[in-house]
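Appendix B. One record, verbatim.
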Amino acid sequence: MEKLRIGLIGCGGIMNHHVNGILTFDDAKIVAVADPHKDRTDAMQKRTGAEKAYSSHKELFENEDKLDAVYICVEPTAHTDIEETAIARNLPFMVEKPMTLNMAQGEAIAKAVTEKGLVTAVGFQDRYLDLTARIKKELEDMQVGMVYGSWIGGVPQVWWWMRKDTCGGQLMEQNIHLVDMLRYFFGEADSVFATNGRGLVEKNEFPGHLPAYDTDDSSSAMFIFKSGVVVNLMSACFVKWNGNPIRNGLTIIGREKSLEYSLRDSLTIYTSQAQKKYNRVADQSVSHDRAFLDAVRAGDPTAVLSPYADGFKSLLLTDAANRSMETGKLIKL
């Protein structure tokens, strides 16, 4: 079997996470990498055995005309013309979230890939959790009343996280994973109301090369789904000490049973008769990348659980929550 030829755009931490899985596949090889930071391309080229390294995505696209797919893992503000160029070349791509901070751009990309029938994937890896499949099965006969959840932790030390205009805030940058799971479970939302808080993290708390901090310390978003399910989702990034006891994830409360999903770790099912716990077995990121590359080989955009057009709906939902924070108003979708 001829190996799929893959290009990497962005050689930072999250790309290395994807490479962990790709390097275990015997039907794919990384042939080109691109990043403005030479130390990153050097390290990635050494790790993957890539034939070529470039300083920009433009150079990669100009010099590599035999790629089968590209992975796009860049900061939220760096989505200039990367996806558009891939689309023009009919080149399947996997892009990490958030795919853009420009909703008009995201809408145009979603429309273009749908019209072309191009294989795409967004890095919503949690759709591939074995626990996610079990939750979805449990929900089939469950009368859900309400849901609450959280993703609470510290401040990631990357420059774009320091400002809301370069990261979109924690709800959009990180907790969008849980937002996407909620859509996967309950369908589309009807409306959202959200509030935020600031002041715990001081603007000059991170000196040196990082810009002054001005993003949310915390936020709480209430999503009302068309199915009638009400969700309260909390996000926070101010914790400084290790051993944080917060149990992040989702709690789904029904009339006859409840589900407690511990973030990327386990699922506990509670009924009046018993409780049963399931631990995560498979690496969802590897499963996600395997599914994307299988779809590329088959030329089947429907074989991906998180294609761009669907992932864009999760991005729109977090954008609506941000608009609610800014205006203090309920946002109808």
